[in-house]
Amino acid sequence: MSTNNPTMIDVIMPIYNASEFLEEAIRSLQTQTFTQFRVIAIDDGSTDASVELYRSLTKDDARFQLIQQENAGVARTLNRALALCEAEFIARQDADDISAPTRFEKQLKHLQSNPKTLAVGSDYQKIIENKLGYIREVPITSEQIQLLMISRNCLPHGGMLIRASVFDKTKGYSEAPETKHVEDFDLWERVLKIGKIESIPEILYFHRSHSAAVSTHGIIEQAEKAELICKRIAYGIGKNPQRLLKVITYSAMQLTRNRLSPVRALFLKEHLKLAILKANKEKLTLLAFGLRLCTWTIHTNRED
Predict the structure, then answer these.
(1) Could you tell me the mean pLDDT of each successive run of 10 residues in the chain, 304 residues long?
(2) Which ranges of 5-86 does DSSP label H, i.e. alpha helix?
(3) Which of these, 206, 209, 210, 219, lies nearest to 135 by C-alpha position?
(4) Domain ranges of the chain
(5) Helix H or strand E segment including 186
(6) SS3 for 39?
(7) Which listed residue, 14, 26, 79, 293, has the most CB atoms within 10 A of its CB?
(8) Is the CATH number of domain 9-217 3.90.550.10?
(9) Side-chain-facing half-sphere of 188: CA atoms under 13 Å
(10) How are beta strands 131-136 and 89-92 bridged, if at all?
(11) Whole-number Å distance between alpha carbons of 120 and 109
């Protein structure tokens, strides 16, 4: 696609009662060094001043569009936004988070330079009580990301840039009840089955934690659903000898660096056992044994 196309990137942003933080999110988009994008924002039945604030902040910027609807939930809202996208690349942005000024520029360059990569994220920093918190370093390669996905969702959903073709192949976000609050993790699982997800080792996104955020409601239900996805990913690794070999190699290199808490190490070991069991059933005994050896090397000194 030509770099002169004003909509090389479509940014999809669901909004729901986000007036407290919406201005920071919008300003972070308006100050992007890469300017050839369009924002498709869908207000999902907000009862606060989100709509009025959005219109006020973007009235002089034709790149920003707004659609209003009755409350439908995150997944359905995202799918409606996807149906309106026309660009080759699709970026996510949450209405309460902040993108670094060079985020789009650097993520787009990465995807253009790596045609086999389907989606790219970055390191991100948490915002807690309006103060900068801890930093999450996301694994760089697809194999590393897949390994960590055995224990948790390591990708910042709102900070991802994705090829539009991915959504044609995956049919968008699941609206099934079993993926509510984990629709992004479910998507990454399906994307990893068809191609690569990578990350840029630089903080390009700031993710906010607050009392009204989706991620703080139904936390037990969310964790249970996420664990099921972790187990499916582990099981899938055990079915694929090539992927299993890469996981073994990465495990041997990375998991001896004392980067796992006791709980996380136990969680990872349990899910790796699923891959081992499946590998044994597929007669990949040598690879399964190698993976088992790697799990024995996991130390538990500090959080990943």
Answers:
(1) 65 97 98 98 98 98 98 97 97 98 98 98 94 93 85 93 97 95 96 96 94 62 86 75 62 52 57 63 54 45 35
(2) 22-30, 50-58, 74-84
(3) 206
(4) 9-217, 231-296
(5) helix 183-194
(6) strand
(7) 14
(8) yes
(9) 30
(10) unpaired
(11) 10
Task: Report whether 221 contacts 181 (CB < 8 A).
Answer: yes
| 12 closest CA partner among 106, 60, 77 | 77
CA 177 to chain centroid = 19
What DSSP string describes 245-265? HHHHHHHHHHTTSS---HHHH
Name 164's bridge partners: none
Residue type, 31: T
Phi then psi for 217, rounded to 5 degrees? -100, 140
Q: What is the pTM of this model?
A: 0.82
Would you call 298 helix, strand, or coil by DSSP?
coil
**Which amino acid would we find at residue 282?**
E
- Please give the Cα distance from 217 to 212 (Å, whole number): 8
Q: What angle do CA 147, 152, 156 make, to 5 degrees?
A: 100
Instruction: Tell me the C-alpha distance between 144 and 302, whole Å.
Output: 19
Q: Locate tokens 């807690």: which residue?
A: 128
DSSP states of 81-105: HHHH--SSEEEE--TT-EE-TTHHH
Structure tokens at 14: 């669901």
